[in-house]
Amino acid sequence: MKRVLSLMFLASTAMAQVTPADENTKSDIRYNLNESGSHYVKMTFTNQAWFRFNESNPGTTVLGDPKGTTFDIGLRRTRMQLFGQITDGLFFYTQFGMNNFNKLNAFPAYNTNGTLSNRKIGAFFHDALGEYEVYRKGTSFVRFGGGLTILNGLSRFSQPGIATIMTMDVPLFAQATVDQTDQFSRKLTAYSRGQIGPVNYRLGVSDPFPVETSGLVPPPIGLNSTFAQRKASKQFQALLIYNILDTEDNTTPGYMAGTYLGKKEIFNIEAGIISQKNATWRTEGSDTLYNNMTLWSVAAYLDIPLNNQKAFSAYLGYFSTDYGKGYLRYNGVMNPATATSRTIAGVSGNHGNAFPTFGTGSVIYAQAGYKLKEGLLGRKGTLMPYASLQYADYDRIQDGMDVYSAGINWLIKGHNGKFTLNWENRPLYKPGSVANELSKDGRRSSFTLQYQVSI
Questions:
Q1: Which of 5, 97, 155, 170 has the most CB atoms in a 10 Å sphere around its CB?
Q2: Are 278 and 231 in contact (CB under 8 A)?
Q3: Which of 46, 102, 45 is nearest to 73 (CA)?
Q4: Are strands 60-62 and 65-66 parallel, antiparallel or unpaired?
C-alpha cells in the first residue's frame, strides 16, 4: 500500500530522478523500483488538438448539406502510456487513448430514429504487451515479446512515435492496413526485436483482424482487389535498420522518433517488408482470385545537430505496395464531411478531404525540416519549418498522384509544448479515359493549426 501511495504522489507532482535507464527524466512521470533506477514504471500523456479549414472535394455534403468548405475542431490523438522495466529481463508496455475525435466521429452509425449514434466512443487500448530480454551486452540486446502492438516491418513511419512527429502528421500510406485488418495500425503479434552492433532489427508474425470487424460493412467482392473475407492467413514482417552514427532509442517496441531536434546524431539506412498470403480477393469472370500482399520499402533517415544549437532532419523512402490488382483506397484524416453527391465508380469515401492514400503500385516519400537556434524567441522557444512530398504511382491513377505539405513548428518546449501550422495540397480525381482508371480533376488545400501538449 505504501508503494502504491508513493507512486500516486510522485506521478501527481511529476518528480524526476536522473537514471541510466532513461535519458529524458527531468520532466518524467516516473517511479523507480530500485535505487539505481534501472527498474521503473513510467507514465506519459499526449494530446493533439486540430483547428482546420478545408476546401472540400467536389460534391461534398455534411449531414446532407452541400459544403464547399468546412471548419472543424478535433482531437487528432489523445494518448496515455504506462510502461516499465520490472526486472532486468521483464518489460511491459500499454497505451490507451483515442483518435480522430470531431463532431462527426461516430458517423456513419445511426440510431433507429435516424440521429447520429453515441458520440462517446473511440477510446481503446492501442497496445498491450510484455517482452523478455534474453541477451544484453553493452548496447546490444535481443528481446522476445507478444501482444497487441504497432511493431511491424514496413518502415519507421509505419510505427511512428507520434509525440515527436516533425511534420504535422505522419505519411498514412506507410500504415498500410490501418483500420482494415488491424486496430489503428496495431496487430496481435509475436515478435523479436534487438540491436546487434550497428544493426537494429524487428521480426514479427501477426494474426490480422478480419476485415468484417473494422466497424464498416466490407465492400462486396468485385473487379478490384479488396481485403478477403475468407482464407485468412498470418502476416510476416521484418525491418532492418543500419545505424551509421548514433544508435536510436530502443526503450519501447515499435515507436520511432520523428525528429530528435538535434539531441542525437542519427544517420540510418533501412529496409522493410510485410507479406501475407491470400490477403485480398477479386473476381475475374466467374472465378474468385486471391492475391498475396507484398509491401516493401528502402529508405534513409538523417537527423543531426548543427552549429548554434540548430538541427536538420530529412527522410527519403521508396515503397513498393502490392495489395493485388486494382486495389485503391481513399482516406481522409478525421474527415470533416459525411458523403458526396459525386461518387466515382470503383472507389468509396471520396468526400471531404480524402484522396487515394493506399493503392497497388509504388510511392516515393520525402520530408525535410530545419530547426532554428535554441532561444530564437527568447523564453518562448524556437521555430522549425518543414516540407514534405508524397508521389504515388498507383496502377489505377493516370499520371501519378502528388500531395504537398509545408508548415512550421513553434517549439515552446521542444515536443512537450508546440504549435504547428500546416498547409496541405492534394489532387482531385474523376473517371479517366481508360476504364477503371482515374484522371486528375483539379486540386484542393487544407490549413490546420495543431496544439500539442506532451509529457
A1: 155
A2: yes
A3: 102
A4: antiparallel
Residue 230, pLDDT score: 94
Q: Nearest CA to 420 among 388, 395, 448, 401? A: 448
pLDDT at 116: 52
SS3 336: coil
Alpha carbons 412 and 213: distance in angstroms, whole number: 41
Q: Where do we find the cell 468484417?
A: 212
Residues 294, 322: contact at Cβ < 8 Å? yes
- With H, G, I as helix, E, B as strand and everything else as coil, classify residue 260: coil
Domains of the chain: 1-38 (no CATH), 39-454 (2.40.160.10)
**What is d(CA 427, CA 121) in angstroms, rounded to the nearest whole number?**
32
Q: Is the CB of residue 306 less than 8 Å from the CB of residue 320?
A: no
Strands 69-85 vs 361-371: parallel, antiparallel or unpaired: unpaired
Question: Which residues contact residue 118 at a Cβ distance below 8 angstroms, ignoring those fewer than 6 apart?
Answer: 106
Mean per-residue pLDDT of the chain: 91
Q: How many CB atoms lie within 10 A of CB 120?
A: 8
C-alpha grid cell for residue 191? 515478435
Q: In angstroms, rounded to a whole number, what is the distance separating the alpha carbons of residues 450 and 393?
A: 30
Q: What's the whole-model pTM score? A: 0.91
- CA 364, CA 298: separation in Å to the nearest integer? 10
Grouping H, G, I as helix, E, B as strand and the rest as coil, residue 325 is coil
For 157, the 3-state DSSP assignment is helix
User: Other CB atoms closer than 10 Å to residue 370's CB: what's the count?
Assistant: 15
DSSP characters over 392-444: EEETTBTT-EEEEEEEEEEEEETBTEEEEEEEEEEEEEEE-SSTT-EEEEEEE
| Cis peptide preceding 108, ω within 30 of 0 | yes
- How far apart are alpha carbons 147 and 149 in whole angstroms? 6
Query: Within 13 Å, how many C-alpha atoms sit on residue 217's CB side?
Result: 6
* Per-residue pLDDT tens digits for 35-67: 999 999 999 999 999 999 999 999 999 989 999
73-106 pLDDT per residue, tens: 999 999 999 999 999 999 999 999 999 999 887 5
For residue 46, count CB atoms less than 10 angstroms from its CB and return exposed for 0-12, middle for 13-18, buried for 19 or more.
Answer: buried
Q: Could you tell me the three cell numbers for 180?
A: 482494415
Q: What is the pLDDT of residue 374?
A: 94
**What 8-state DSSP symbol labels residue 337?**
-
Q: What H or E segment, with its residue span, contains residue 339?
A: strand 339-340
